[in-house]
Design a protein that fits this description.
This is 2,4-dihydroxyhept-2-ene-1,7-dioic acid aldolase. 43% of the residues lie in helices and 16% in strands. The chain is α/β, with parallel strands linked by helices. Strand 3, helix 4 and strand 4 form a beta-alpha-beta unit. Helix 2 packs parallel to helix 3. The radius of gyration is 17 Å and the shape is globular. The termini are far apart.
């Protein structure tokens, strides 16, 4: 059954007064998604269509695998693309995260792609959102829409972007943002410039009544960012976790 507005997930975590715990998945295998979702640790999993290996069929299979265990699904889009956004939202995902949103115009285009009229221009197509007697329109209204802050321009205009009607929040991509700030690509960053950027995004979201999210690859770092005020934090990511577990399995060589 697909997620409904009352189902567990990101909004339920917020209603409970805590940050939502998110997993990040790039490997398009429904069994992997089901294993992760079945653990009962995460509020949501994000399927990464931008840098992951998902196509339409594997995205649909992953959504079914996660929702079977009551875990909400978010999707990181490849771009601000109305056809792609409509497709994944018709599948019943709880929200989308759009990369490289540099300005208000792009943020408005994102809202247009994700919201039904009159707020947006999304086409009505309840492929899975009507299962079990659910209300597709209510599900559409509850869908989360996050714009990523990954560039110097997005950081400079964070307040304006966060205030766009129909946008739920900003999601920081530390890797690309670090590159944009001249610091190189990395995760779980502690550079003063990056921490200052986090504070600026949090302030922009607070002023706009929006939520802030951030990507991480360790639970401890994600917890620290939740303590800072981020409402959506990635606590686990498939490729770093798999690599770390393989490295940890090696015994000392003679």
């Amino acid at each position: 059954m697909t997620q409904t507005p009352s189902a567990p997930g990101v909004r339920a975590a917020w209603a409970a007064g805590r940050a939502a715990r998110n997993g990040w998945i790039t490997v398009p295998d429904p069994h992997l998604v089901e294993v992760v979702a079945s653990r009962g640790v995460l509020d949501a999993v994000t399927l990464d269509l931008q840098h992951g290996l998902f196509d339409r069929a594997s995205t649909a299979a992953a959504v079914r695998a996660a929702t079977l265990h009551g875990t909400a699904v978010l999707v990181r889009l490849t771009a601000v693309d109305a056809a792609e956004a409509g497709f994944v939202l018709d599948l019943g995902v709880q929200g989308v995260i759009a990369p490289m949103v540099d300005d208000v115009a792009t943020a408005r285009a994102l809202v247009d792609a994700c919201r039904l009229p009159p707020l947006g221009r999304r086409s009505y197509g309840p492929i899975r959102t009507a299962f079990g007697g659910a209300d597709p329109v209510a599900a559409a209204e509850q869908a989360l829409v996050f714009a990523m802050v990954e560039t110097a321009g997005a950081l400079e205009r964070a307040g304006e972007i966060a205030a766009v009607e129909g946008l739920d929040g900003l999601f920081v991509g530390p890797g690309d943002l670090g590159v944009a700030l001249g610091l190189g690509a990395a995760q779980n960053r502690e550079e003063p410039e990056v921490l200052d950027a986090f504070a600026r995004v949090l302030a922009a979201c607070q002023a706009a009544g929006a939520r802030a999210g951030v990507h991480a690859t360790s639970a401890s770092y994600a917890r620290a960012r939740a303590d800072d005020g981020f409402g959506l934090v990635t606590v686990w990511s498939d490729l770093p976790a798999l690599a770390a577990s393989v490295d940890a399995s090696a015994w000392p060589r003679p």
